[in-house]
Design brief:
The complex is a heterotrimer of chains A (about 550), B (about 325) and C (about 300).
Chain A lengths: L3 E11 L4 E12 L4 E5 L6 H8 L7 E10 L2 E2 L4 H7 L4 E4 L13 H12 L4 H14 L5 H4 L9 H13 L5 E5 L7 H18 L2 E6 L2 H7 L2 E6 L2 E7 H6 L4 H9 L40 E12 L12 E12 L3 E5 L6 H8 L7 E6 L2 E2 L6 H10 E4 L13 H12 L5 H14 L16 H13 L5 E5 L7 H18 L2 E6 L2 H7 L2 E6 L2 E7 H6 L4 H9 L9
Parallel strand pairs in A: 3-8, 3-9, 6-7, 7-8, 13-18, 13-19, 16-17, 17-18
Antiparallel strand pairs in A: 1-2, 1-4, 4-5, 9-10, 11-12, 11-14, 14-15, 19-20
Chain B lengths: L1 H15 L3 H5 L6 H11 L5 H13 L13 H36 L4 H15 L2 H15 L12 E3 L2 E3 L4 H34 L2 H8 L4 H39 L4 H10 L3 H29 L1 H11 L1
Antiparallel strand pairs in B: 1-2
Helix pairs in contact in B: 1-4, 1-12, 5-6, 5-8, 5-10, 6-8, 7-8, 7-10, 8-10, 10-11, 10-12, 11-12, 12-13
Chain C lengths: L1 H13 L1 H7 L2 H18 L1 H4 L40 H37 L1 H16 L2 H15 L2 H36 L2 H9 L3 H37 L11 H9 L8 H28 L5
The chains are: A alpha/beta (about 550), B mainly alpha (about 325), C mainly alpha (about 300).
């Protein structure tokens, strides 16, 4: 008898128009001492399964059939059962450590309350136990930190506190729902190591819910793949990743950017084993193509940006140096990558290049003109036309009140005031088809599109001014991995055929490796090193680059 | 700072709005008498002298003489102050206590029958103008049932400067209707705010995480959620007292309660500027005090602010 | 054109707002009541047989007639008459027209001023934002009714007595509008701050769209939801404020009575037993405010995705 047995579990949400099945007849078992990875794209139902185990499904969802048996107890037989198990036998870790802790209780108070709810311990004993626990999850000065409030901990430390809370009553089953998604790579690997260590030491049964195939590959013993509420495939991690049986799993694995080599295009596997054809770039004949003369298009010289933390105090103590003396050049027609963790200043640099922020110091030259000192609006418009940007969040980058047609026509009209409305329409259609959307899309509103389609609209808008430089700020990090592969392919095609220059900003090293010719590594607002892509991955010179490369989760590690 | 601004506004009121002399004297007063009055009131001095005198006087509690009643404003105010303060305090107590309790109840029991009723009544309460409630109460309890007085403070006991209605039966009876009337609007407002706050908190991740740890529902509601939910209540309470003072103008008019609001509304009708400006300064003073107290309370209740402040000072 | 209209209609029918509207009996009932009240008030000449402000039609003989269902009631005066023999129902509807005009005008005034300042403050930021927000802070601590009273009091001082009755309605609109604008300014500023940081605004800036167009074409439509909610609740508040000021005797003059004025005038007769003179205007006012609040409450729940 397995420790956790999920039998034929179905969860449905009764929505206004239809009933949505978040899980359909899912069967999973987990043994003690093993980590089961639950992987899938957004909407696959992986979190629903996690929540169902602890009976905390959000309204209006409910379990419509099936059973969940934990250590021989069926939790849906009697509503009292789960109350006995929560915290005591099953621990849960959420994604975002920032919001998982009650802000006005000290972590000690929260630990003691949880311990005393389940274990018959005196306050002193509970405190001793809590402090030992904090030490166990790697918090220094546990005796002092015990009395601190959550906001006094950093993100990674907070997630450790969350883990200690989940483990404080010695549960035998741990459910971790995207426990490291909100964290940087270096902290992610520490937290994952911690979970692995605790699994071994305490003989836990762990379910690790994630979308990251690298994490799955490095952490789990077995993996279950989900799609649209269905369990696609379950088996030992190595088998699933190296020899998937189902087409969906194959597609999923092949769209993960490899960390160890550069490939030309991602294989997009749809129903059959056919690969996606190259994009038909219809706007090509409208495009005044720039000759590739391998000259520097962008020159960033000693760029710095300081943000005042507090508007009212003028003391420099509170100001944050987001970008500190950064210099690099981008050649015409090249893809230049900027990599760094959160807070490294990579997005700030992007915003200065597109002139959303003014630099505190330093210059940016575009086509040998310094664009940071332009005062006149008319002069600026010339450069606005040539530099466009694609944003991270496909949901906020399109105005939901405008039709796609109006979104794309705005830049066209602004930069060609004399264009006839018929020309505008045909231009819009060409742009839409160039990003593989239908002409009918023009009459629809953004909310009718998926994240990937919205990102395509965003690209079409950016191309409408016929820019020379396209700044891509994490263009795929909000997307599922299979969609990411499609968008990256599209960007590659566009660049090749239109001779675009791309500044590609990302935290995701494998993606950058696939996309860029040269890469700059940023840390705390400073450039660590700039190098040709393959050279950087094979012979990193800077310590920080080496660290990043070792710590990033690698799907290929399954082969070792 | 705020006090100075308000002082200046009320001073300008004093000076530039109409001619105070016209307001003070009748039609038949001769020009010589007017000039004489102007001199005695110091209205011929330069503006800045008048202003500094105004501030100096105001800080001593001297606001000049009422045009209409021909008595010192400070005297009028100190006479009326206890009545208003007693009324406002009782109302604030009713509004805060019952508003918070009902708000928490409806926030926790979102779908209950009782919650729906409380919410419907509270919405009706927001729609009922204070004076309408007052009139209905008077009609019901004073005219039809005849059990409670419809106007005045009843018998009051004088304690030095202070006169109180709390010590006599008729005084206590008299305060019931006005204070309930005054508190109703605020109470319904607080119910809705607290409810919204509780509902929002109960959906946060940390409540969900507490549930997942098996913390008892009781503790989740009354320890985890309530404590967070009460933080905004402090601000509400502060604004609440200020609003009550303002709305006491209406209640006092309806019940002919001999407080400052009644005095003020008469002043507005007769353009009695000294009383208006004194009232303004008084209100501003109360608001500044309340804001100060609210800030201090926040410091004690919200650890995020406390830790920040300690980090700065230490 | 027709095609476009059709899709717009379909869009409305298809929207979640429409769906939750037809699912909510309170929203439907309050809308129906409001439509009836608005219609009867604005087309009062068509609805009522009497003009209470035409002295020739009044007869003091018919003064103090109780409602028609009581013993002494007359069937031609359904809700009775007041001290001058005016038909209560007609007087109420005429009064409600004044109340609604003042209420709407004041809210529109507050909305335009508040949203204009709030939107620009949120968009441009800096010292300008700070000054405007300090202003709202200071004014929000002063309760709106007090603010309106003060404005009215000052106006009385500035405007001569003869002019005052004529100007009273404008003074009232201004006083109530001024007392309500900070709400709109705060809400629209907060919403603007959220919208401003969204990438579609950055995208427009990068394209080269001017600030004015970004503010009004892109941001304004996106902040209208919360503004409309505040506007609805603000309308109820403005109507109540108007009634309160008129009740206190500082609002519209008795020659063109609003609901508040009617209640004040009727209040004098309460103790002598003529309850209907004050009761019906009061109930009408409550019905009006309650319906608007019901609708506003429903809007808040529907348009605020946070609580759903």
């Amino acid at each position: 008898m397995s420790f956790l047995k999920i039998n034929n579990l179905s969860v449905n949400y009764e929505m206004r128009r239809e009933i949505v099945y978040a899980a359909k007849g899912v069967n999973i078992t987990v043994e003690k001492g093993e980590i089961l990875g639950l992987v899938g794209e957004s909407g696959s139902g992986k979190s629903t399964v996690g929540n169902a185990i602890i009976n905390l499904i959000d309204e209006p969802g409910k379990v419509s059939s099936g059973s969940i048996i934990v250590d021989g107890v069926n939790i849906y037989e009697n509503p009292e059962n789960i109350l006995q198990l929560r915290g005591k036998k099953i621990g849960l870790i959420f994604q975002d450590p920032q919001t998982s802790l009650n802000p006005i209780l000290t972590i000690g108070e929260q630990l003691i309350e949880t311990i005393q709810t389940h274990l018959k311990l005196s306050k002193e004993d509970a405190k001793d136990k809590a402090i030992n626990l904090l030490k166990e999850v790697g918090i220094k000065d546990a005796e002092v930190r015990f009395n601190n409030y959550p906001h006094q901990f950093s993100g990674g430390m907070r997630q450790r506190v969350v883990i200690s809370l989940a483990l404080c009553c010695e549960p035998e089953l741990l459910i971790a729902d995207e426990p490291t998604t909100a964290l940087d790579v270096s902290i992610q690997s520490q937290i994952l190591d911690l979970i692995k260590r605790l699994t071994k030491e305490r003989n836990l049964a762990v379910i690790l819910i994630t979308h990251d195939m690298g994490v799955i590959s490095e952490t789990t013993n077995r993996v279950a793949v989900m799609k649209n509420g269905d369990l696609v495939e379950i088996g030992p991690t190595k088998e699933i990743l190296t020899n998937p049986k189902e087409i969906y799993t194959k597609a999923l694995v092949s769209s993960v950017p490899p960390t160890n080599k550069k490939i030309n295009r991602f294989k997009i596997i749809e129903k059959e084993n056919k690969t996606q054809s190259e994009t038909n770039i219809k706007i090509l004949n409208r495009w005044t193509k720039k000759e590739i003369i391998k000259q520097d298009l962008v020159k960033v010289k000693n760029l710095s940006k300081t943000f005042d933390d507090n508007f009212f105090t003028e003391s420099s103590k509170n100001s944050v140096m987001a970008v500190n003396d950064v210099s690099f050049n981008i050649k015409e027609g090249e893809s230049f990558g900027l990599v760094g963790e959160s807070g490294s200043g990579k997005s700030t640099i992007a915003k200065m290049i597109v002139n959303l922020y003014r630099p505190s110091a330093g210059d940016i030259d575009f086509d040998n003109v310094c664009i940071t000192k332009i005062k006149s609006n008319k002069e600026m418009m010339k450069f606005r036309k040539q530099i466009q940007m694609i944003f991270q969040d496909p949901y906020s980058s399109l105005n939901g009140r405008l039709k796609v047609k109006d979104i794309i026509s705005e830049p066209i009209k602004l930069h060609n005031p004399s264009i006839s409305s018929k020309d505008i329409d045909s231009y819009i259609y060409d742009l839409l088809e160039s990003v593989e959307l239908t002409q009918q899309s023009a009459e629809r509103y953004p909310h009718e599109f998926s994240g990937g389609q919205r990102q395509r609209i965003s690209i079409a808008r950016a191309l409408a001014t016929q820019p020379r430089l396209l700044v891509c700020d994490e263009p795929t990090s909000a997307l599922d991995v299979s969609i990411q592969a499609q968008i990256l392919n599209l960007l590659k095609d566009l660049q090749e055929q239109l001779n675009l220059t791309i500044l590609f900003i990302s935290h995701d090293l494998p993606v950058v490796r696939q996309m860029c010719d040269r890469i700059g590594v940023l840390k705390n607002g400073k450039i660590c090193e700039i190098s040709e892509t393959e050279n950087l991955f094979k012979n990193p010179s800077h310590e920080y680059t080496k660290e990043l490369l070792t710590l990033m989760p690698k799907i290929e590690s399954i082969y070792n | 700072m705020v006090m100075l601004v308000v002082a200046f506004v009320s001073f300008s009121l004093f000076n530039f709005v109409g001619d105070p002399i016209n307001n003070m004297v009748g039609e038949e007063t001769s020009d010589e008498e007017r000039v004489e009055l102007r001199e005695t009131l110091g209205l011929t001095d330069p503006i800045y002298i008048q202003f500094s005198r105004f501030v100096g006087n105001a800080s001593k509690g001297n606001f000049g003489i009422s045009y209409q009643l021909k008595r010192p404003v400070s005297e009028l105010i100190s006479e009326r102050l206890p009545a208003t303060i007693e009324l406002v305090l009782i109302s604030a107590l009713i509004a805060l206590v019952s508003g918070t309790l009902l708000g928490v109840y409806t926030g926790i029991n979102r779908k209950g029958f009782l919650s729906d009723i409380i919410l419907a009544i509270s919405l009706l309460g927001v729609s009922l103008p204070t004076f309408v409630i007052g009139i209905l109460f008077i009609y019901l309890f004073a005219v039809i049932l005849g059990i409670l007085p419809s106007f005045g403070r009843g018998e009051v006991v004088s304690l030095g400067y202070w006169t109180t209605g709390f010590l006599t039966l008729s005084g206590l009876k008299a305060i019931i209707l006005p204070s309930v009337t005054l508190s109703l609007f605020q109470m319904t407002y607080i119910i809705r705010l607290v409810r919204a706050e509780m509902m929002e908190i109960l959906q946060t991740d940390y409540i969900k995480f507490a549930r997942a740890r098996g913390i008892k529902e009781k503790s989740i509601h009354y320890k985890h959620a309530l404590k967070n939910g009460l933080i905004p209540v402090i601000t509400i309470a502060g604004i609440n007292i200020g609003t009550l003072i303002a709305f006491s103008i209406i209640t006092e008019t309806v019940f002919q309660w001999p407080g400052m609001g009644f005095l003020f509304i008469q002043a507005v009708q007769f353009v009695d500027i000294p009383i208006m400006s004194a009232y303004l300064v008084f209100i501003a003073f109360v608001f500044v005090m309340i804001n100060f107290i609210v800030d201090i309370l926040y410091y004690f209740i919200d650890p995020r602010i406390r830790v920040k402040a300690e980090a700065v000072s230490g | 054109m027709d095609n476009h209209k059709l899709t717009l209609l379909n869009r409305i029918k298809d929207s979640d707002v429409y769906f939750s509207f037809i699912k909510s009996p309170t929203a439907i009932i309050s809308t129906v009541i409001l439509v009836i009240i608005f219609f009867c008030s604005f087309f009062v000449e068509l609805v009522t047989p009497y003009n209470p402000f035409d002295p020739s039609s009044l007869s003091l003989m018919e003064a103090f007639t109780p409602p028609s269902w009581t013993e002494d009631g007359l069937s031609k005066f359904i809700l009775g008459t007041d001290g001058q023999g005016r038909d209560m129902l007609s007087t109420i509807l005429y009064g409600s027209r004044i109340s609604l005009i003042v209420g709407f005008s004041a809210v529109i005034f507050a909305l335009v001023l508040g949203v204009g300042l709030g939107l620009s403050a949120g968009y441009f930021g800096g010292k300008y934002e700070m000054i405007i927000m300090r202003l709202t802070d200071v004014q929000l601590t002063v309760p709106s009714i007090l603010m309106a009273l003060l404005v009215d009091g000052i106006a009385r001082g500035i405007i001569s007595r003869e002019m005052h009755d004529e100007m009273a309605i404008y003074v009232l609109i201004f006083a109530i509008g001024i007392s309500e604008w900070p709400q709109f300014a705060r809400v629209s500023r907060a919403a603007t701050l959220v919208e401003k940081n969204k990438d579609y605004v950055s995208a427009s800036t990068i394209i080269g769209v001017s600030n004015i167009i970004i503010m009004f074409k892109h941001i304004l439509p996106n902040i209208m939801r919360p503004v409309l909610v505040i506007g609805t609740i603000g309308l109820a508040l403005a109507i109540i404020a108007e009634a309160t000021l008129s009740f206190l005797g500082v609002g519209v003059p008795p020659t063109t009575p609003s609901l508040g004025t009617l209640i004040r005038l009727g209040n004098d007769f309460l103790f002598s037993g003529e309850w209907w003179i004050t009761f019906f205007p009061a109930m009408f006012l409550v019905l009006l405010a309650f319906s608007i609040n019901l609708l506003g409450d429903w809007m808040r729940d529907t348009l605020n995705p946070k609580l759903n």
